[in-house]
Amino acid sequence: MAELARKLGLDGGASGREIAEAADDPAWRDAVREWGEALAELLAADPDGAAGAVARAMGSGTTASWYDGDHADFRGGVFLREVVGVQVVIQRGGAAVPEALAGLPPRPGGFTGREGEMAALLRALDPAGELKEAPAVLVAAVSGLGGIGKTALAVETAHLAVERGWFPGGVLFIDLHGYDQEPVTADRALQALLRALGISPEHIPATADERVALYRSTLAARAQERGAVLVLADNASSPDQVRPLLPGDGRHRVLVTSRDRLPQLGARLLPLDQFTPKEAYDLLDNALRIADPGDSRIVDDPDNAEQLAALCGNLPLALQIAAALLAEDQGKPVTELVAELRESRDRLDHLHDGERSVRAAFELSYRRLSPEQSRLLRLIALAPGPEVSEEVVAALAGVEAPSVRELRALARAHLVERGSERGWWRLHDLVRVFGVGVVAGDTGLREEGEAARERVLVFYRRWATAADDRLRWLPGAAEPERFADRGQALTWFDSERAGLVAAVQWARDERFAGTAIGLAEQLAVYLDWRRYFDDLIAVMDVAREAARRAGDRLVEAAAWSNLGNALREAGRIGEAIEAHTRACSVLQVAGERHDEASAWSNLGVALRQAGRVEEAIEAHTRAGDLFQVAGNRQSEGTAWINLGVAMQEAGRVEEAIEVYTRARDRLLVAGDRQHESIAWNNLGSALQDAGQVDEAVEAYGKSLEIRWEFEDWYGAGLTYCNLAVTYEVVHGTAEARTAYLQAAEAFTRANAPDRATAARTRAAELEANPPLTP
């Protein structure tokens, strides 16, 4: 009654009669109606208890006062006229409900890494941020893939902020379980936070809007009385879960973690990526040493530890599980766990420790996707290469253009990430494993995936053929589709290279073998031109084996030839000779004279590099004769180039000059400018050997003009080196240094760092010790 009296403006000792006399006041009627509703709720909830007794007493016209304890005393009550309801403010023992503003979870054991991210988060939370480089913000949102370590970072950062005295008003922590079957609603979260702020359950308003108002007003009062409060809302899945939890007072801060980016909150966004290799290594070592300070398995085997981290995708959750598996089995070497993960068809089968599971973490995010989003994620998981262009995404999905809306939704959920360039996308390694596993576990999804892969192979082969046609194009031939010049073709090949090489590996599956073998053939010139010999070896080895299984001897021979060229360029000369010899044998039996000529030419190059010069001369002569009979001037010209090199190495310089000149003329007529540049370069070398220095410099100049025209950086580097040697002979030190530096630049662009270093070294030697002039 005292509370009612205060509300009506009467003194604390007002009697029931005094209150009754004020009943005509509109405030009385409003109060009675308001309190009656609350009292009715108490009666319904606890009819036989103390609340029920109060309600019955008030309904009979008595007043009630509370003594210590949970009982009511109705003695001396004053009966009023009929009463609809009265609000009862319950104070138990005169003490307020306990607050829970120190509910921050303990610091994560063995926390490591994330120095940069933690610094950025602290800047966002700093109350004095507006006075510093970055302005302070009300909300900071940490987002990332499931298992990336969002909660650990947020909790560690919150502890640091509290230690710095930034939040004297306390910390409120709530796990919103945003990705569980039944996430915590904003309303339930508000009730929990209000109780943590010391509001007793019976004082929490009935409507959501009133709860938000009470929450914000309570936080505002707390800011005045004690200072700022930090609200840590963990594991949110939508902005709607968080918005009602935002304080109205700008002194407070809210820290949110989510698998989604939540840009709608107007927050300072901090997306988390996987650990660096160093951070992953430290986590593994720290976790094992927490379990056993003497456990040095990570330090003792750093190479396998690095491989273990890579197999875990440098994902903190996966790393912690791997460490737990090692800690559980003290005698298990790191190399054994590495072997288990590498040999497993599904790494996620191993990445669980009985309590935690990477697959389960991803499943929580996956099941929240729409059907369109989940299908797109599964298909991208099947894509070849570490990144995928939107063109390839469209091919996978069987549409003209991919749904950018769905891709963005997956990116917000951190299930896909933007690639190295705009229009490119990538998956975390373990998300890819998860997606492949989902497809493998369902017959219908497997067929969907196979059809998607076929579409990608058809797409790749079509455009690789067009790009290859452009690289091989000679004046007078039909214009290839799509690519207007060599630069465009090379740019497309460069961007899609990883995917193209990976797609050829599908040739191991009989369903894809024919298309994949054809794709491999279209990559040979490009990969050789760009000097990606490891890729060329991988592509041709798969194509060769697939052609053998299919019984296609001609395709197998072509693959042997291309494989031999790649092996030779990689310095594996013995294997190259064997590959070319196999190609020659197959084609000779098949009667394919033109292809046989190419095989003999390739074999001659390998024999020459092996020091078997006379055998090389014989092979090149045979190749040239076969091309001449076939009337192929272009190929005949390249055969004469190779023959000239062998003759020059045999000391037959005058014959070499004659052969190079013949090769240049054949190629000039054929319009093959690329090989013409090689003929000019080699002719310059032979002229230099013959002492015809001026003619040699002129020939090198002709070669360089063409090589720059075709972006043949490696060839340009070789020609610059030859030119530099010529300048050295005639004591042109400055010109020689310039030529060596130009060679270094060209080799760098050609992905030949060793040759670039050698050229720079020689230029430095000439500067330090110039030759004496005569």
What does this structure look like?
- This protein has 774 residues and is mainly alpha-helical.
- It has 34 helices and 10 strands.
- The strands form 3 sheets. Strands 4-5-6-3-7 form a 5-stranded parallel sheet, with helices on both faces. Strands 8-10-9 form a 3-stranded antiparallel sheet. It has a two-stranded antiparallel sheet with strand order 1-2.
- A hairpin with a 5-residue loop joins strand 9 and strand 10 (424-426).
- The longest helix has 30 residues, at 443-472.
- Residues 1-24 and 47-97 have low confidence and may be disordered.
Based on DSSP secondary structure assignment, what is the total number of beta strands?
10
Beta content: 5-15%
The total count of helices amounts to 34
Q: Report the span from N to C terminus.
A: 119 Å
Q: What general outline do the C-alpha atoms trace?
A: elongated
Runs in which pLDDT lies below 50 for 5 or more consecutive residues are 1-24, 47-97
* Strand order across the largest sheet: 4-5-6-3-7
| Rg from alpha-carbon coordinates | 39 Å
* Biggest sheet layout: 5 strands, parallel
Average pLDDT taken over every residue: 84
Give the proportion of residues in helices: 55-70%
Briefly note the structural class of the backbone: mainly alpha
